[in-house]
Amino acid sequence: MARIGIQLMMLKEHIAREGVLAVLRRVVDTGFTVIEISQIPMTEENVADFETARAELGIEVAAISAKTSVPAGSEEYSLESDLELHVEHARRLGTSMIRIGMMPQAAMTSPEAFGSFCHEVEQYALLLDEAGISLSYHNHHIEFARANGTMLLDRLRREAPHLRFEIDCHWVQRGGRDPERTLADFAGVLDLVHLKDFRIALPSAELLMQRAAGDIDAWAAYWQGGIHEFAEVGAGTIDWVPVIDQSIKSGARYLLIEQDRTYGRDIFDCLADSRSHLVSLGYQDLIQG
Q1: Does the predicted TM-score (pTM) go above 0.85?
Q2: How many domains does the chain have?
């Protein structure tokens, strides 16, 4: 059975202040037991705390995250330098999935550079497969750009045939595509889905006053980007029943709630609202397990 959980990136500041275990206790109190780990330093202390959370709180780790490479001098881990450590962390935390959150900026510089990235992730996917671990790629909207007539996401899928995918519904819609159809297109290579809503924000009274006063730049910033917001599940424009049902039909094992920004709201209140909406749609069993 597929499970619904949360992307832990949303709570990285809480974890930095309070620690892994304290935050995961609050997560369980909010009604979730499944997590995906991203942007949390995988120190020995944190990994040990995740192990404790599995044993004592019933936390299930859907996937952990990895970067293909990091700048020279960085203390972050990467598949290039620390592939075996990623395998060790995955095994300790009971998951068989590692996901890449985004391509490096260098891969965006030219079609040739993107081709090198495709080759690189294919090699990592093969190496991890030998260890019994799958490698998934998480999309943003940049992958829907076209180079030489080919959409980057299509090229990545073609040139890295052993790579799996994590489809993020918000970024699909923001990239001009339909989430349900995209999930259908990725049937058979889909393991993870991000349940992230897409909201159109009305201009604030302050912004309208600025516009009336002739502040074209403020209005342009809103119209060209600020009008698009991340939202709690059910507070945006995505029709979630067909999206979730298609996710499961396409083979997704985990569907993770994610909200990149909360616009002043407490993240735990946002998670509670997302959970409430999903329960109202009939997905309580996928949350509770």
Answers
A1: yes
A2: 1
